[in-house]
Amino acid sequence: MDYDCIVIGGGHAGIEASLAVSKLGLNTLLVTQNPDRIGALSCNPAIGGLSKGNLVREVDALGGEMAHLIDQTMIQYRILNKSRGPAVQAPRAQADKNAYQSAARNIIENQRLLSVMMDTVTELIIDKDKNKPKEHKNNIMLGCIAGVVTARGHRISAKTVILAAGTFMEGKIFIGEYDAPHGRLGEEAALGLGKFLRNNNFPVGRLKTGTPARIDGNSIDYNCMEKQDGEEFIPFSFDFGSIPEKFTDRKSVPCWICYTTAETHRIIRDNIHRSPLYGGKIKGTGARYCPSIEDKVMRFPDRDRHHVFIEPEGLYTKEKYLNGLSSSLPEDVQDKFIHSIPGLEKAIIVRPAYAVEYDYLDPLDLYSSLESKRLEGFFVAGQTNGSSGYEEAAAQGIMAGINAVAKISGEKALVLGRNEAYIGVLIDDLTTLGTTEPYRMFTSRAEHRLVLRHDTADTRLTPYGREAGLINDERWERFQEKLRSLDIIKELLMQKDNSKTNDFPVEWVTRVLLDQKYAGYIEKENRIIARNTKMERIKLSSDLNYRAIAGLSAEAKEKFSIVRPQTVGQAARIPGIRQGDVALLMVLAQRKS
User: Fold this and answer.
1) Do residues 182 and 174 touch, judged by C-beta distance below 8 A?
2) In this structure, are residues 587 and 580 in contact, taking their beta carbons and an 8 Å threshold?
3) Hey, how many other C-beta atoms are within 10 angstroms of the C-beta on 380?
4) CB 373 within 8 A of CB 304
């Protein structure tokens, strides 16, 4: 066996997956089309945001690297939703794109047991004899993963494979009438693997995303724009109380806000027939919650303007990112509508906006561990699962890495509950509900968001990271010391002795104050969680023949056969399932146990 694990793709899912596996002592290979682009921020040069900032801190609490990367490279920091309750507040930081990529590659190259190979995976090697096929109407077990085949003809064996190809698998970009096989502008698509998966009856579909134009910052008139300054840099990682001194030489760079106009909208409407999205060239479904500017104009005709956020690409360049102006319209139309925006009349476009369409695997075909239901040892993470965003990708990457190691060692997979982490909500939504559009995390998706605050991620998840083996002794001791300190702070506040609380970090004191302020709500929430947890503890066999169960409705038989829920709790969350069907499953499972 050449490797314990092969990770396909050097994006944010691939980074976390390959680091997790190699840190846990297994020989790992990261296959990427271009090592120079490991950790590339393909779209928005920022990490975090509403619910996404929570994901970053959860990845950090488990022992991942995304928080460390943004702490080293942030050039602006803000807490979003400050005017609202703490359950929906979250950190967000602009990143220096080049510095972020460089830091990511440095970590990868210096990780023991982790090798990087520049190539493209075109096929999977499947051992069909190791696991005899188990046939269901909607699910055929092909066997076990045994390795990969690359475009240059390498056959590399492995015990597990993690697919994290992002937007590159059979990717195609669109700019008006122009299209080309790329995963990002100027970067070739990963061709071959999508076709292989289709030929082997994997449920492969097409999704679409996009990115705005980048313009020369020297060509912007900032005088008619609203300035958006950052706040004091605060680390995402629980490893640091403040940004380490070696990274404090960076200055905070402002963002700017401007607005589209009626003329902008007229130009777009008059040229909408030239959009590949509206002309029928793009077949994949786009993100409903992050629409292109042509979608905004056509879907919301009563809106007389839309926000445009001017964001820096980094300290190394004058290029600016036009957040809110994602488009696939031709370049001459982009020129016109950008120049119709006050402050951008003389803007010089450095890189045009474009849409990208790519292959994804239906996440209903995955267990909650992110392992394929039809190919043992094969895991899928990131945008290839139908999700959208760096943070969602990183969260799935670290979980796929942890569970690939568990698979090899014969240990139980790590599955986080919806009440334990946004990561739990993310993966449960994907593997229970599926998705037909790029899935984006929102606080509203988490029914227990009051107990999932970003400042509590370490106490919720660090024990899991320790158990998995990703939290070392030094960090574990710091975590234990923090827990002891939180107890002391709580006791002091209960005694109304505020004189000694200045001895502790402000963040810790604030956290205890919030816990006390919302204690009644949290207690109520915990009662609901306890009730739901009972159903999560009732396991269901993966090869259960639902169609043979008398008393289940026809709809339940069909949906249970597709999703193949691992617990009664997961079964109850499948849309359209009746309470009677859930009760019957519960009785059958308890009888069997």
Assistant:
1) no
2) no
3) 28
4) no
Q: Give yes or no for a contact between 397 and 16, defined as CB atoms under 8 angstroms apart.
A: yes
Q: What is the pLDDT of residue 499?
A: 67
Q: Of the given ranges (175-184, 348-357, 370-379, 579-588), which has the lowest mean pLDDT?
A: 579-588
DSSP-assigned letter for residue 205: E
User: Among candidates 60, 113, 21, 8, which has minimal Cα distance to 406?
Assistant: 21
CA end-to-end span of the chain: 38
| Residue carrying structure tokens 């561990």 | 369
- CA distance linking residue 227 with residue 216, whole number of Å: 18
Helices (H), 280-419: 293-299, 331-339, 390-409
CB contact at 8 A, 381 and 162: yes
If phi over 0 gives left and psi between -120 and 50 gives alpha, with beta otherwise, what is residue 496? left
Handedness of CA 215, 218, 219, 225 (dihedral sign): positive
Whole-number Å distance between alpha carbons of 105 and 114: 12
Distance from C-alpha of 463 to C-alpha of 454, rounded to nearest angstrom: 16
Residue closest to 341 by CA, chosen among 185, 174, 215: 215
Q: How many whole angstroms separate alpha carbon 427 and alpha carbon 154?
A: 33
SS3 527: helix
Q: What does pTM read for this prediction?
A: 0.94
Query: Taking residues 13-38, what's their average pLDDT?
Result: 98
Calpha distance 386→43 (Å, rounded): 17
Instruction: Categorize the per-residue pLDDT at 143 as very low, low, confident or very high, splitting at 50, 70 and 90.
Output: very high
Give the C-alpha separation, 8 to 119, whole Å.
10
With tokens 């597709």, the residue in question is 562
Q: What count of Cα atoms within 13 Å lies in the side-chain half-sphere of residue 162?
A: 43
Three-state DSSP string of 161-191: EEECCCCCECCEEEECCEEECEEECCEECEC
Residues with Cβ within 8 Å of 56's Cβ and at least 6 positions away in sequence, in order, are: 47, 48, 66, 67, 70, 91, 236, 391, 394
Q: Residue 33: helix, strand or coil by DSSP? A: coil
Q: Please tell me which residue, 494 or 160, carries the higher pLDDT value.
A: 160
Mean pLDDT of the chain: 93
Give the three-class secondary structure for 156: strand
- CA distances (Å), origin 571, targets 28, 236, 332, 542, 583: 35, 35, 51, 12, 10
Q: Is the dihedral of CA 559, 563, 564, 568 positive or negative?
A: negative
φ, ψ at 209 (rounded to 5°): -140, 180
Nearest to 338 by CA among 250, 438, 221: 221
- At residue 526, what is the residue type? N
Taking alpha carbons only, the member of 390, 450, 388 closest to residue 422 is 450
Nearest to 507 by CA among 489, 534, 519: 489
